[in-house]
Each structure stands twice: as C-alpha cells, then as structure tokens.
Amino acid sequence: MTDIVWTKEYKLDRYRKLNRDCQPGQTVFAGSSLMEMFPIEQLVAEDLSGVTVYNRGIGGFVTQELIDNIDTCILDLEPARLFINIGTNDLSNATVTIDELIRQYGVILDRVKAALPDCKIFLMAYYPVNYDAAVDTMKPVLLVRNNEKINAANRAVQELAQEKGAQYIDVNGPLKDEQGRLKAEYTIEGMHIREEGYRAIYPLLKPYLV
C-alpha cells in the first residue's frame, strides 16, 4: 500500500469529499497550519454537545491560496460561524508587507460576506513565537516573522475586523511567557503549538463557539 503524501492538493481533495456529508449552518475553522493543527474538533466533541466544528486549515497556506480555494475551505460548508487564522506564512515572507497581507485578507472577508451575509466571522489573533526555543532550522524564519511584526499585524487585523464587520478575538494570554513569547513548553520548534497549548487557550475560545 502506498504511503499517503499529505500535500496541499491531497488535503483539498480530502476536504472536498468530506464536505459532501457536512451539514450547513455549523462552525468552520479555516487558515494555515496553526489552524490545521488546532484539535478543535476533538476538543468540542469532548466538551460541547450539539456543536459541530469542521476544521479546514491547510499547512503552508498563504492568503492567496485561501482565496483560490475559498469554496472548499469555507463557502461550500455554508457555516453560521467562521473562525479564520490566515496570513502567518505571508508574514514569514520578507517581501510581503503587512499592508499587502491585509488587502488579501480583506478579499477573503469580502468573498465570505458576499456569499454568506449572515455568517458571523471571527478573526483570530496571530500567535506569538519564541526564537530562543526554536530549532536551528526555524530561526531564520523567526528573524522575519518575529513578535514585533506579529503584534503589528494583529493591530492591523483588529482594524480590518472593525472595518469589515467581523469580530477580532485574542486568546493568546495563556500561550505567552513573561516576555510575551510563546511559552517554550507549548511550542514544537519555536512557532508551531503543541496540543497542550491549544488546550490552554480553548477555554477562552469556547464562549465564541456557542
């Protein structure tokens, strides 16, 4: 049996198939790897009866890729609630400005609002990183995608939410150490988050799910 290669296209094809059996009017999580790795479906199943969440995050996605695949990741599911965390991979690219990122993010929101005018949209704050806890291969990325840049991007996303009639939510408090970095015990390699980290922020996210 051939081992599965979890490419972006494989994940998209898998989501297209799964979407056929999904119920409209539920909750969708969309974005890149930090959303894909969020075990939100598991946490909700353990905790909230009657709430259904579909996670359609795809690792490596930039804003343009979510625009290009917005039907599969969002619109085909016709959600009543949508949580988005997209753009951190744009922030990892030194040639992409925060203004450019926000313009792309605005396109996503406009597309959703046009297709699903009653959908409640939540823009999640970008998570902090920890350069000192990073593995060597991750450190060059975190020189570009540093906490100062993340904080500036979060301010811009908050303004975008106000402009577009969405709600900005920041549940990062439990993830941060005393210096505002991602806690070393919660990170895999300086950027991505362990399940324990997601479980730490889930109680702050839970009120928005019901």
Plain-language structure description:
- With 210 residues, this protein is an alpha/beta fold.
- It has a domain at 23-126 and 148-173 and 194-209: Rossmann fold.
- It has helices spanning 8-19, 33-36, 40-47, 63-68, 70-73, 88-91, 98-115, 139-144, 147-164, 195-205, and strands at 27-31, 53-55, 81-85, 120-124, 167-169.
- The protein has a five-stranded parallel beta sheet.
- The longest helix is centred in the middle third of the chain and has 18 residues, at 98-115.
- The radius of gyration is 16 Å and the shape is globular.
Per-chain topology:
Layout: H1 8-19, E1 27-31, H2 33-36, H3 40-47, E2 53-55, H4 63-68, H5 70-73, E3 81-85, H6 88-91, H7 98-115, E4 120-124, H8 139-144, H9 147-164, E5 167-169, H10 195-205
Parallel strand pairs: 1-2, 1-3, 3-4, 4-5
Question: Strand order within the widest sheet?
Answer: 2-1-3-4-5
Q: Helix/strand-derived class?
A: alpha/beta
Sheet-strand content, in percent, reads 5-15%
Provide the residue-averaged pLDDT.
97
Total strand segments: 5
Distance between the termini: 42 Å
The CATH architecture designation of the domain at 23-126 and 148-173 and 194-209 is 3-Layer(aba) Sandwich
Sketch the major β-sheet.
5 strands, parallel
Radius of gyration: 16 Å
Order of helices and strands: HEHHEHHEHHEHHEH
Proportion of residues in helical segments: 40-55%
So what's the CATH class of the domain at 23-126 and 148-173 and 194-209? Alpha Beta
CATH topology of the domain at 23-126 and 148-173 and 194-209: Rossmann fold
Q: Tally the helices: what do you get? A: 10
CATH superfamily of the domain at 23-126 and 148-173 and 194-209: SGNH hydrolase
- Sum up the overall morphology in one term: globular
Uncertain parts: none
